[in-house]
Amino acid sequence: MSATASDRLKQSTWASHQRLEQSAFHRALQAGQLPLAAYVGWLRALTAIHAELERKLDQSELPAVRALWQPQSDPGQRRLALLQQDLLHFRYDLLADVAEAVRHTLEYVARLRQLRADDGPELLGVFYVLEGAKLGATLLQPLLARTYALRTAGLRYFCPPASGLRQHWQGFRQRLDQALPEAAQQDRAIAAAQELYAFMARLLSQLGDSGVREQRFFSFSFNPQSGNHPVQQQPEVLLAALRATDRCLAEWPYFRQRYGHLGCLFGDSDGAWLASLPPLGSRVVIEQCNWLAGVLAARGMPSFLLARHLELLCDELTRACPLHASDWQLLRQAADSLDPACDDAPAAALLQALPRLSHQAGLANNSDSQAAAQLLLHALLDEQRRGRGQAADMLQWLTSATDRSAAGCAALQRLLTAAQTLLKGTP
Ligand code: HEM
Fold first, then answer.
1. Rounded to two decimals, what is the model's pTM?
2. Residue ranges of the domains in the chain?
3. Nearest C-alpha to atom 4 of ligand 1 is from which residue?
4. What residues form DSSP beta bridges with 151?
5. Atom 33 (ligand 1) nearest CA
6. For the chain, is the Cβ count within 10 Å smaller at the N or the C terminus?
7. How do residues 191-221 score in pLDDT, each as one tens digit?
């Protein structure tokens, strides 16, 4: 009988696995001496990898992939949100990244991104390694808990399921064997699994001796899904940026409701980048903020939200570093430049009419409905400026992804129609 996919995968990668177990990184962890930055660096790399892998698995329509990737019936397969939550736990520790490890991770993620729709065996090879690593996580979890005094927060990715891990793994292996019966497919899965092990070995060695390597902050340090564009390096500036995100999220629960943990992670990486712009001068700050406003508006974040974020950033940065107050004022200027009412009479008239239109549409007089009305009208104004169907997208989200009543949904629809009519009728 020919060898099964799972047996061949284990045989071909077990030597690499043992090298990981013998690595300096693992030895330092066993001795309780692994620096927190090395652990968090590992979480960041895993976040970038899981984001790409889970996206690819979601997109795949290959029966072999569908047979293995079943997050509806097995929600534990989705682990990106656990990693994001773990990262949020360490936000205020403000840990820089080993530059080489960030580069190495993003190169690996780029290779994952290049996998094509019919690269099912490669996807399953990568999935095998990360799913199998859950077995080892049962040993790593107590070490991590003890070293960093963690309970669940900061350790979710490594927390084993309450029971049945072995049985679950057996089921996974059986389905893998059925999905990859041919030697040629198995060879492709093995090559992908070996590539991930090779990546991991190098990553852990880079992180393990982080003391002797160049460390910096990148946007990756705040949000591994944001790439690695340059950000501010000064800790007090970065801490102010994190506080600005917190205030923005508290004012606008929409960010968390729609984007989950990414709302905070992107708030931080954008804030750390925005805070690096003022030395480049007013024109660049305004240009870059307008560019970002367009990107965010196309993803469901009307530009008045970025304007508010910029105001809060300016406020926090001025408080943290008052010597550079004039620099931070450039962020406030950029916020003003995003105000749709500043050089657009119809937009100004619409915003002024918002309370009346909301009342006439029958919108409830509570903060949630008023926030929804603002989001909707600003999405419409973005659409007028940037033209990409933002209003329909926002209405769709407000009426389907929230637990709004049918009457509330109808009121929002009426509000949008009235706003569109008003804009058409304004000279
Ligand atoms: C460095 C510390 C690690 C330790 C102590 C460790 C330990 C273990 C243990 C005890 C098993 C169960 C072996 C068995 O009884 O069959 C296991 C399985 C596995 N581990 Fe790890 N592991 C570690 C790291 C990793 C990493 C970083 C990866 C991924 C890159 C990984 C991937 C796997 C896979 C794929 C399996 C399943 C192998 C199979 O049965 O086919 N491990 N690990």
1. 0.95
2. 5-221, 230-337, 345-425
3. 136
4. none
5. 133
6. N
7. 999 999 999 999 999 999 866 778 999 999 9
